[in-house]
């Protein structure tokens, strides 16, 4: 009986992993209306570049780069990205309070509240988007509009495996109030 139940759970987990792997986040469509804010989560290739491009294209009024190293300066960042220094000066904020996806959402909420924003474009990697969107929706609640804008990647199997398990563990911890 226990072996059957364990086998059943393993099959459910494997099917969930397969579904997770084939339904990664996608970039936002061009026709999606602009949001008030853009929030980029550090930690993956192309995230900040995508967010800076969206800011330059006026897809948002202001950009928060959440989870930035405290030693990073806006000017250095925009120079590396080939962006305009004036854009960095007026419209980019570096958040260095967060260390993980959950604290990224909390940091972004404080930033959004200070600015009075109620809509944001969330920029992160395609494999990370499901968990990031879950954390942001959970932290922000229904009063905020979140537009997911994933950066396409070629994730390794181990990256997908790790992210799927993090996502499941986070959901379980919320369900069981741990």
Task: Give an account of the 3D structure.
This protein is of the alpha/beta class. Helices cover 52% and strands 16% of the residues. It is built from seven helices and five strands; from the N terminus they run H-E-H-E-H-H-E-H-E-H-E-H. It has helices at residues 2-22, 47-56, 74-81, 85-91, 101-115, 129-140, 157-175; strands spanning 37-41, 62-66, 92-95, 119-125, 145-151. It has a five-stranded parallel sheet with strand order 3-2-1-4-5, sandwiched between helices. Helix 6 (129-140) links the parallel strand 4 and strand 5. Helix 3 packs across helix 4 (85-91) and helix 5 crosses helix 6. The model has no long low-confidence stretch (mean pLDDT 93).
Précis, in short:
With 178 residues, the protein is of the alpha/beta class. The protein has one domain: Rossmann fold (3-Layer(aba) Sandwich), CATH 3.40.50.620. It has helices spanning 2-22, 47-56, 74-81, 85-91, 101-115, 129-140, 157-175, and strands at 37-41, 62-66, 92-95, 119-125, 145-151.
Q: Provide the CATH architecture.
A: 3-Layer(aba) Sandwich
Shape: elongated
How far apart are the first and last residues' alpha carbons, in Å? 28 Å
The CATH first-level class comes to: Alpha Beta
Strand order of the largest sheet: 3-2-1-4-5
Segments where pLDDT lies below 50 for 5+ residues? none
> Strand portion, in percent?
15-25%
* Number of helices, counting only DSSP H or I runs of 4 residues or more: 7
CATH topology: Rossmann fold
Number of domains: 1
Rounded to an integer in angstroms, the radius of gyration calculated over CA atoms is 18 Å
**Average pLDDT:** 93
How are helices and strands ordered from N to C?
Answer: HEHEHHEHEHEH
């Amino acid at each position: 009986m226990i072996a059957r139940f364990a086998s059943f759970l393993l099959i459910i987990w494997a099917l969930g992993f397969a579904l997770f792997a084939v339904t990664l986040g996608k970039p936002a469509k061009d026709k999606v209306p602009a949001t008030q804010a853009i929030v980029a989560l550090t930690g993956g290739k192309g995230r900040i570049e995508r967010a800076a491009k969206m800011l330059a294209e006026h897809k948002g009024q202001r950009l928060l780069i959440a989870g930035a190293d405290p030693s990073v300066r806006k000017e250095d960042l925009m120079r590396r990205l080939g962006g305009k220094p004036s854009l960095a000066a007026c419209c980019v904020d570096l958040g260095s309070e967060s260390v993980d996806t959950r604290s990224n959402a909390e940091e972004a909420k404080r930033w959004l509240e200070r600015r009075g924003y109620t809509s944001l474009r969330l920029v992160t990697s395609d494999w990370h988007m499901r968990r990031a969107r879950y954390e942001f929706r959970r932290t922000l609640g229904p009063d905020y509009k979140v537009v997911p804008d994933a950066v396409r990647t070629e994730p390794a199997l181990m990256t997908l495996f790790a992210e799927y398990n993090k996502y499941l563990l986070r959901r379980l911890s919320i369900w069981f109030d741990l």
